[in-house]
Specification:
The structure is a homodimer. The first copy, chain A, is of the alpha+beta class. Helix content of chain A is about 30%, strand content about 35%. In chain A, strands 1-10-9-6-7 form a 5-stranded antiparallel sheet. The mean pLDDT of chain A is about 95. Chains A and B meet through strand 1, strand 2, helix 1, helix 5 and strand 11 of A and strand 1, strand 2, helix 1, helix 5 and strand 11 of B.
Chain lengths: ~230, ~230
């Protein structure tokens, strides 16, 4: 088997800094975790909040702390630091090679989509962002690592797209259309969802948007780990 | 402008864990840093050392600590923890948007290659790995961010390739051949160097090998940040 992960990320129009922060970190007992946070509002303040949350979470995961405990700790730290006045969404998607599972932790009203075979499930159980009160806990979904599994995680910029013009994006439909038409690579799917959102906002995204796609498939080729990334500079 | 970064990484033959650890982290004042460490020996012990060093460095960089100070701190921490008995190489390649430079910090006898226009420079000033004594300092090279710049960083697995058979890899020649023949993407160049090394070891790498290629070019397309990665599972 192999896991492929793709990310597409764009700033709110005319905003130099994204309120979204995403990091990928290797897990100490095997596998990796993608950590995505979206700080309340946008710009510099939001960036500081989402970076603080992601830094806290990856620091704990690197020490072997479980994902759920890391999310709770980040929430309590944010709550304490900001006096319950600032919220931040958090998604952790982990490939855990100790348990051979994918662990999805969600503190985000935006759902996660899980595709397997021809089925697309929308995981939209109620979920609160971090930092707004004591006792925040993530919604956790654990899935067996098996070929054909595809997971789509995003920040609320995707669902806000088009709202300004009264044509909000239907993420579920967009995913379904992509999956029916072709067998998209994770990068194609992430790019396509992002482009769809940007088009609905007429090329001027109303919010920061981040899309993460994780796919498990039978191994295809060598055993080389690869990563490539692109950072456009202003 | 845009920066593209590619990584190719393979384990020593028949080794479940790589002694090399690589993480990419966003810098708090803009840009990102690639942090690559190679722990002494191989397998589980080496992995623990390189993870400890990388974790220390990314934690400090995330707080805004300068690259050189982070490398010194990681060296002192390793020296103290392991009583000067364990060494670890460290390379940090940072795209620093505060200074609009690329900052390369090297605690590694293996050189770094810097290509610009048709020129290929081998940066091989003497450099000590972390942890072996007090007062370890990195060799630092700072370069203006400008299109056409390409940087190649790797762990010593690349230079060890072929030694077993008395045909050690000539990294400089391999880079030159790639650059003359074509205008390789960073991923093509990283893959090509890795494949060359694996072939010299007859498909059974004698050591963990990691290759990082960083390229600066004029912006080509949209302003979307992208990342894709592949994790082969055993």
């Amino acid at each position: 088997m192999e896991v492929q992960i793709a990310v597409a990320k764009i700033n709110k129009y005319a905003s130099l800094e994204s309120g979204d922060t995403l990091e990928v970190i290797e897990r100490p007992n095997g596998g990796l975790s993608v950590v995505l946070a979206d700080g309340q509002t946008s710009g510099r303040g939001a960036k500081a909040v989402s970076m603080m949350v992601v830094r806290k979470v990856i620091g704990l995961l690197a020490e072997g702390v479980r994902d759920g405990a890391a999310a709770r700790a980040a929430s309590d730290a944010l709550y304490t630091d900001k006096n319950a006045k600032v919220s931040c969404t958090l998604n952790i998607a982990s490939v855990d090679l100790e348990t051979n599972t994918i662990v999805l932790s969600r503190n985000n009203p935006s759902p996660i989509f899980i595709c397997h075979d021809d089925q697309i499930d929308c995981m939209d159980a109620e979920s609160s962002p971090l930092g707004v009160r004591r006792d925040i806990r993530p919604v956790i979904t654990e899935l067996e690592l098996q070929p054909g599994l595809m997971i789509i995680v995003y920040t609320d910029g995707l669902t806000h797209a088009g709202k300004r013009r009264g044509q909000p994006m239907d993420v579920s439909n967009a995913i379904q259309a992509m999956m029916e038409d072709q067998d998209p690579t994770p990068q194609e799917l992430a790019d396509s969802l992002l482009v769809h959102a940007v088009n609905l906002d007429e090329g001027r995204p109303a919010d920061d948007v981040s899309v993460v796609v994780l796919k498990v498939q039978t191994i295809n080729g060598d055993t080389v780990r690869r990563m490539s990334l692109r950072l456009p500079l202003s």
